[in-house]
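Researcher: Predict the fold of Ferredoxin.
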Amino acid sequence: MSDINIRITDREGLTHDIVAPTDMSMNLMEIIRSYELAEEGTIGVCGGMAMCASCQVYVIKDPGLEPMGDEEDAMLGEAFHVEPNSRLGCQLHIADAMEGLEVVIAPYP
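Model: Structure tokens for Ferredoxin follow.
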């Protein structure tokens, strides 16, 4: 089993140091839901299909994320509160290269 450390600031401005497993095929949205860092029904509304942007985060520290795919880019093109460092948590699959990732959960539309 392999774990990485991620720092997540929730929508209330509270910072959480999270330990996330890399061997469970989880994404950042699922980690946020697992740790209950966003109010129920306000994150992952589409179930992680890159169709709603409710799991949008702002990447503060990028230790090596995979490049953004076309679906993610298209969804962010239609989303609210988008910043240059926006990503969809459902598209960020937890991997060893993400050690030290820091994100802020974007406001819910």
